[in-house]
Amino acid sequence: MHFLVSAVLALLALYRVIPIADAPSRAVAINRAGVVAGQSRDGAFTWADGRVTRYAPKKFFYLDGRYTSVATAINLPGVAVGSDGSYEPLVMSGLELATAVLFQNGKMTFLDSSKEGTGTFEADGINDSGVIVGEDQYRGFVRYPDGREIIVRPLSTRTEWNGTRASAIDNEGNVVGATTIDVPWRLDVYAQRGPHSIGGLPIHAFWLRIESGKQHMTDLGSIRGFLDTYATAIAEDQTIVGYSGTKSGPKWSLVRGVSHAWVWQHGTMSDLGMLLHGDSSWAYGANDRGEVVGCSGASDEHWLGMPYTDRPTRAVIWRNKRIADLNDLIPAGSGWRLLCAYAINRDGWIVGDGNYKGSHQAFLLKPLR
Q1: Closest to 343 in 3D by CA, of 364, 329, 321
Q2: For 158-177, how does the pLDDT look when each residue is reduced to its tens digit (9 = 90+)?
Q3: What CA–CA distance (Å, rounded) separates 278 from 311?
Q4: CA 44 → CA 25, 97, 112, 310, distances in Å?
Q5: Residue 338 burial (CB < 10 Å; 0-12/13-18/19+)?
Q6: How far apart, in whole angstroms, are the C-alpha atoms of residue 173 and residue 145?
Q7: Closest to 42 measured CA to CA, from 64, 28, 58, 53
Q8: Which of 130, 275, 276, 285 could bond 145 through an S-S bridge, CB–CB 3.0 to 4.6 Å?
Q9: What is the number of other CB atoms lying within 10 angstroms of the CB of residue 114?
Q10: Is the pTM of this model over 0.85?
């Protein structure tokens, strides 16, 4: 009977699990060629066909704390971007000392050497043309290969406590991320005294198009029951995904609280739901085949865009807005518990992190058929 059950579960498996990088590790990006980027121990890495390239962090001599390099995105030519810096103890006050970095052919190049260790300067996305997006001192940026840079203006009109962050860019130059927004006075008072930090404003996901140097930003809005939204990825068919929140932290781009993943298509934001009633969910990646990946679980906190809890989440996939636990789609007895999926390419290859025989490790899922 046990053999029969195992055989049935094997037939139901849709993916093969491949461990990548040394534990502890997390894979957060994959390009169309199947090259992966992420973080292993305290350094960024890229992975291709079983070969790992590591990038040791640079330590700023005047700062005491934890130093790490992190790769957050990778384009088709294999250029990865991310940041290098220190994230503690200053991070607990909403501050970081980090510098945006390019990772290529084993070499780490700072985007602007004059800014090393001077504040928050992080690259979050890169497209195949080499256009980079991220955040520089509480403002999103779009940086072109010729050195031109556009600062993403917030929708909020306050002189302080506002900001933007650009999290991803597609090959047509569409940028997504988050911006603080203006609200009616009564809601503004509620936001300051209620779940938001002092002086904080609600945060909404945006879609930005830049035409002839002019910015055209669309507020993507929010879903029912949630004040904040944050866009994490955009697919080549302009499907946008992200997560929501009920409070913002001291750093404006930190969307926290109970969350529901969402997808934005054809002008409408839809709640993607969660695995279990009462749980949270987050969407981090999407492709142009209607597939969205992320995670779901009992966590109600986020830190720098990742679930932050001692109660593990479960990696999930949505197809046509229907959720499935990726742990149910891998071979039984694999030794894996998949915690979160962060990216998916057009061929359906998925990367993320999980627990493998007691170790926290990056994974790659390849479709079996």
Answers
A1: 364
A2: 777 788 999 999 999 999 99
A3: 14
A4: 9, 17, 18, 24
A5: buried
A6: 13
A7: 58
A8: 130
A9: 7
A10: yes
